[in-house]
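A protein record in our archive is deliberately plain, so that people and models can read it alike. The tokens are whole numbers drawn from a learned vocabulary of local backbone shapes. For reference, a complete record is included directly beneath this paragraph.
>
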Amino acid sequence: MTQTIAPASATGRENRGRLRGNLSVASIVFIVVAAASPLGVIGGPVPLGIAAGNGAGFPFSFVIATVVLLLFSVGFTQMTHFVPNAGAFYAYVGTGLGKGLGLGAAFVALLAYLALEAGVFGLFGPGLAELVQSYGGPVLPWWVWAAAGFIVVSLFGYLNIELSGKLLAVLLIAEVAIVLVLDAVVILSGGGPEGFATGFVTPAQIVSGAPGMGILFAILSFVGFEATAVFRDEARDPQRTIPRATYISLISIGAFYTISSWVLISANGESDIVKKAAQNPGTILQSTTEAYLGAAGGHIVQLLFVTSLFACILSFHNIASRYFFQLGNRGVLPAALGRPHPSFGSPAAASLLASLVVGLLVVAAVVLRLDPISQFYTWLGGISSVGIVLLLTLTSVAVLAFFARQQPGGPRWQRRVAPGLGLVGLLGFLAIILANLPLLVGEESYGPFSIGVLVLLASGLVAGPVLARRRELFFG
């Protein structure tokens, strides 16, 4: 007889250490989209994708990424009804493929999110230092400003999630607004010196240059969208809130990136955009804004770029903290990590542990005198990139396995066709990232660090089944 699993309900052990919150769809969207750092993407990965990828055809890479991730989300959100806890990746993988692989997925997720949180401090510190100096402030090392941001992030992570949600809403609205104003001005003025760009709808342009690199930078721009399920315990009516927040986040991010990257290309002209993006990848957004919105617009973008990075760090800190919390709540890590704060209902102890790990990584970068951008951020970004796409792929397999073995029947599109198509796309993404991993970590070919990234993530994944055999773990 086929085994069935009832839809999720809050019972038993799941109730012993639940976080408190009243997050709406909008609040979760703000947290998740802030993790994607929209302004940071338009100012960073987009110029890099144009220069190293397929030039004027690059915006179509966002269309491809959005479609594949939407297909992934169909099965992901369908399975939400059968996964009763907020473990996200590890809960889904554990339910579909067994608790051993689920635990391994949890370790990989922690590595990926903590690495990215720490790495973005390598962008935030220099960015804030430059901003302060531009207004006549003191010249201080990047790590001083990173430390200031670290203290604020740790404070907000310790408190109730609704406070973080409100702050992220303000910061996100501001950073998106300035880009939308730039988009509107360029569109209303009839485009740039060559009118509106047509490369992203021209097949020859889409496949020109290195389209695989274009896809790579597009994928990296979506990291964080999948974290909606992490906030299940703190959401209103999670079985409705989580799916809606997932779709809204993904569609909003995809549309914003596609339109804004097209506008950036149009504003600079298709014939010159690759050259400009290659020469000034870090300043092309600011210079374009100054050209269309004046010096004031350039100053606003510079300020909001820094706040965008801060919002990204805070979002990933909240995600990592909740992974620590869920692992503590289920007896994998010390039980104290799985106890919510009695007053704030937050994962306070788990947040402190996440802060400790990230703080040690930043201190290590300072002691080793790593360049904050070309080494610290790049290296940790490589870990995160491979880890997140690997987890998305494993989750797709878990969804297909779960509905085939434990919930046969049901809507074919949601439970088989869409997840299957999404898995094919994600396997392609994973192949692209692995092929270009040396570039991501600053190596010409596979070397010590590229191989080290793979060994680290593989060790985390393998550690799950090993530990699961020795201990009785709970997966809802």
About this structure: The longest helix spans residues 284-329. Confidence is low (pLDDT under 50) at residues 1-15. The radius of gyration is 22 Å.
